Amino acid sequence: MLDENLARIRAHRNNIHRYRRLLKTKLSQLERHFIERRLAEETSALDALTAVTFPVGFHPSGMPAEATGMAR
Question: What is the DSSP annotation of 3-46?
Fold first, then answer.
């Protein structure tokens, strides 16, 4: 189960990197909107899968997550 989730996490991360690279290219508005939507979907899926796979988050004591750059 863990190996499957790690493989899915890698796939989502690869897709996110691919979509970010594509957004740096010259695109039509239709293409850009499509890629932005797919990027949002992949990011959401990655966040959900990461939360299920690694349910415990560790933060340095005394510091809010926003201060460490860990909050989204």
Answer: HHHHHHHHHHHHHHHHHHHHHTS---HHHHHHHHHHHHHHHHHH
Residue with tokens 């988050």: 57
Alpha carbons 70 and 66: distance in angstroms, whole number: 6
pLDDT of 11 > 90? The answer is yes
Cα separation, 25 vs 41, in Å, equals 20
Distance CA 19, CA 40 (A): 10
Looking from the CA of 17 toward its CB, the CA atoms found within 13 Å total 6
Q: What is the pLDDT of residue 7?
A: 95
